[in-house]
Amino acid sequence: MTPSGAWVASLPGGAEMRAGSRLSGDFSDPLAPASARSQCLLADAPWTWLDQVHGNQVVVVDQPGACRGAQADAAVTRCTRAALAVRTADCAPVGLASREGVIGAVHAGWRGLMAGVVEAAVAAMRSLGAGEVSAALGPCIAPHAYRFSRADLEQVAERYGRGVVAADDAGYPALDLRAAVGAALSACGATLVADARACTHCSGDHWSWRANRDTGRQASVVWFPGQCGTTVGTIGPVDRDRGV
Ligand SMILES: [Zn+2]
Question: How far does residue 233's CA lie from ligand 1's centre (Å)?
């Protein structure tokens, strides 16, 4: 996994999703100095991270780093130098991008999905000029470890279809979160183009609330790597002309 223990997915318009792991740092307190260092290593651009509440609020970031700490579960932007981050333990991080250069990041747990956070994020992207929206799904909990009450599961199945109904290792009802995210994306005409297929519960490399009651959080970032960072950003044509 590179860089910094991350799963990387290329998205349209030169965008990229980097889904971090434990190896990329603990982002549970984004203001901690250690977290600031980890942010630079994972994606060297001003981060917009969110105060996530499992709702359907989407912030529109109009300059790099804007809306940092806002109470919301998704962010969208067309700023080429912004990095949109969501933090997860077992919930699904979803990266979104369109060819027109509009990107989004979504924190999708079952409550957020039921509130329509994925559809709200895609709609916000379209209002910024996105046409076709492509999605990448980072590591999240797999159904075998995601036991669910029958009543809650039925609610999700009513909204997103029977494909979300699964069983856990002991045969109890379980939610297939990946299937629910897939159904939410389909519902708003977005296409899943990359899937990490990693289970946070089983992977020793990820924080998991269900497995370990971990308070740590991995971060997933959507950004335009070619527009940011020290590797590409500081060696532009202007610098070369000056012989730097
Ligand atoms: Zn698992």
Answer: 39
